Every structure is written in structure tokens, then in C-alpha cells.
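Sample 3 of the quickstart, ligand flavin-adenine dinucleotide:
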Amino acid sequence: MTKLDRRLFLKESAAGVIALTLTGGAASSCITEFSSPDGKKFKRPTAPAGEYDVVVCGGGPAGFIAAIAAAREGAKVALIERYGFLGGMATAGYVAPLSVFAFKGDLVIGGIPWEFIQRLESMGGAFIEWPKANVDFDVELYKLCVQRMVLEAGVDLFMHSSLIGCECVGKRIDRVVIQNKNGLESLQGKVFIDATGDGDLAWMAGVPMQPNPDGTLQPSSFCFVLSGVDTESELLRNCMYHDGVRGPSQCLPVRERLLQLKAEGMDLPDFGGPWFNNVLHSGSVAVNITRTAADSCDNRNFTAAECKLREDIFTFVSILKEEFPEFKDCYVASTAPQAGIRESRRILGVHTVTAEEYVSAERYPDSISRGIHPIDIHQSSGSGQVRIDLKQPAYVPYRALIAPDYPNLLVSGRCISTDRQALASLRVQASCMGTGQAAGAAAAQSIKEKKAVQEIDTDRLVETLKSWGAVL
Ligand SMILES: Cc1cc2nc3c(=O)[nH]c(=O)nc-3n(C[C@H](O)[C@H](O)[C@H](O)COP(=O)(O)OP(=O)(O)OC[C@H]3O[C@@H](n4cnc5c(N)ncnc54)[C@H](O)[C@@H]3O)c2cc1C
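Result:
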């Protein structure tokens, strides 16, 4: 019987922190044994919930597109998502717009991602801002549109399910363990795609991560919908769009007044932008203004950061009401389900995309996606932001989606192998969808070719992606 190396990550119990250890066992075992640091042991049943070709962890822009792509290539696909809806930062973080699908009016990210945008537009849920094709959207229609496309593709959805561990044989992942109201369940797979944003599965499986010696991360921002806003006013009309034609999307008059108040001695929290983003409904905007240093992979740190940001939201809203007539009747209609995350873990892949390669638009033999958003680094304290505009769309190689030696793991989205600067462009949603599309196609191809993800025919992969409309 094969000895399994089980890596489960239960971090808290009533007794405090639990060690991340597990006893080994047979693949068919349905009892999982946990050990706490004081030697106490307890057992919990792990019910097998299914055997799949491809298991996708995380239902954000990278994950749902990956799931659709793999399913359309004939794979039996499971998609795991901790919330009761899909969309990741778009719907769980109120991050708008969906950036950036085009360069000077020509598509850069095509295929299934663009099909999704067109479908959302046909439902009245998207407004495409040409020539960059930044996409403003309705959060609720976004959730509905994704759900329809995923289910139509035949994907099995496991919502309200948190990935909490994986079982490996060497570096091959055998199954993942999820927790939901059924208890602990395990899903067996031939290939796994980590689209959790934070690289949870890769981390659990022991994949080395990009070094971050000084621990610097881009800040977290807690976005919210503000209603009762005069969206017909000149102030709002001039800054609600990201087409690069109507002027800066940062609302400069509000920014300047906030900086002035701070200079005059007002005790103001750090802020970014601010951005007042179009949500397709007159009188309402999605606001991105708060910011604080935070580590989304440290539960206590992130909890404290989120509590602070929730306070900050209401501080800023009261200032807006007092200082600007356009906001005098405004109110917080809803806060996002969670504070937004710009940066956390990324794998150390077979290839790491560097800023130099990225800015010079280096084209790789295995290019599978593109990016045209500026390199956009928000500073974790203060109001600063460094932006480098790209002169031409950049490329992403397939090798940034795989780690050496892990034969059945792909990553997509924010946790692919890049340096900090390249991530600062590739983290945007169109680019995450692009790498998701490639990961889904590659997963299905690796099963068809019966090859490790490092060994698949990348020419064939590129041909598949082009046949779907990817612009490579
Ligand atoms: C404040 C802010 C502003 C931004 N502005 C823009 C912008 O203007 N335009 C733009 O395009 N992008 C913007 N971004 C970036 C963009 O939103 C994200 O980088 C992008 O959504 C990442 O996509 P992803 O699919 O990799 O991860 P995510 O969108 O984070 O999706 C990951 C999914 O996995 C799920 N998940 C995570 N862990 C687990 C687990 N253990 N078990 C089960 N499910 C799990 C999550 O719930 C989520 O649904 C911004 C981000 C922030 C925070």
C-alpha cells in the first residue's frame, strides 16, 4: 500500500493553535488523524467526495476560467470555492474595473475570458470601456453569468468549501481535503490547478515560494459600494471611467483635498487613489480608497487589518459627506465580503517572469498569455503609487505556471511565478483569466498525453489556445 504524505492545515481550535501534522495512511482511508502540539490526538472522518480529472482550487477569475477551459477539453472537472459565489476579487472584493483586455482597441486577452465579458455584456452586466477594454460590471450579474458558464461547461461545483490540505505521494498530489458542512471531504484528481490567489495548494504541497526577504507586500484595500452619490456631477463623470480618454481615473480633486487636510494636521488614515468606479447603477460607485499593510496568509494579521480598514471606510465617508456636495447624501450600501489582496505568495516556477522581460515584451517559445496593464505598485504606507506604462503588450510563458518536479500541479492568476514588479501588472483580472485559460487547457492536455505538466507539447497547447481566440 502506498504511504501517503498528508499535509493538512488546521490552524485553530478551541485549545489554540494546532500543529500542522497528520499521520500517514492508505489512499482509501476515510479517517484523518490530527495531532496538537501537546500530543493530544483527535480523529475526523474524511468522506471521499469524488474522483476527477482536474480539480481547480479557487473560483476567482483565474479559477473559473481554468475550470471552463479544462471541461471544454473533455475533462471531468471539480471547482472548489470557499464562498457561495464565484468571481474572486471582482465579487468578493468589489474590485472594479476588470482590467485590461485590449491595447489601442485590439484585443490582447481573447478566448474564453472575452467570451465571458461578451456574455456578461449581453446580460446587461458589463460596460466595456474602449479602447483599453477595461470592463465595468454589475457584481450580481457577474456572479450569475459565471455560475451559468461553469455549470453549462459541466463543472461540478463545491461552494462553501475551504481547501484545508492535500495528500501527496512524493511531489504528486493525490487528493485535496476540503471542509464544508458535510465535514471533511477529499477530492481525488489527476491534475490540480491552484487558483486561490494566495497559492494555498502549492504552499500546502510544499512548492518553494518566491523569496520576499523584507516581507514587503502591496497593501490591502477594503472596497465598498457607496450609494446616494451624485454620479451625474462633473466631479464623478470625470473620474468614474478607466478608458484613458476622459482623464485620470484617480479622483484628483478629492485626493488633493485629503492630502491638504492631512498636511493641516488632520489624523487621516493612509489612503490610495481614491477611485470611484462605475457599477452600472446611477447614484452608486464602488470605492477604492482605504489601504493598509497586511498579510493575507497570516490569519491574525489579516483580521486586524480588516477591522482597521472597516473603521477607515466610515472615516473617509464622513469626510466625503462634509467636504464635497456630490457626496452629501451618500451612505455605505455594502462593504465587500472581504478586504482586497494585491500581493501574497507566488510560486518559484520553472521560469520566473522578471520586470525586464515583461517591460521589453520578451516573447517566449511557450507564450500562453499576455498583459498590458501598467506595472502598478501601491506602497504599503502613505498614499504613494509607482506606475510604469507598457509600450506594448507583454507575454507570459507556460513555464511560469508550473513548478519543477511537481508533475500534476499548475497554478494560475495572482500566484504564478513572477517577480514583484511583473506581478504588479499581471495581477489584474484579464491577465489572471488569461493564465487560467492556459492552465485549464494544459491540465486537460496533460491527461490526454499522459504526461507530467512539465512535459506536455507546448506547441499543441498554444494551438489550442489560439483556436479559442487567445491572442498570442
Ligand atoms: C484593492 C484592489 C484593487 C485592484 N484593482 C484592480 C483593477 O482595477 N483591475 C483589475 O483587473 N484588477 C485589480 N486588482 C487585482 C485583481 O482583483 C486580483 O489580482 C485578481 O482578482 C486575482 O485573481 P485570482 O483569480 O488569481 O485570485 P482571486 O480573485 O483572489 O480569487 C481567488 C479565489 O479563490 C478562493 N479561495 C482562496 N483560498 C481558498 C481556499 N483555501 N479554499 C477555497 N477557496 C479559496 C477565493 O475565495 C477566491 O474566490 C485589484 C486588487 C485589489 C485588492
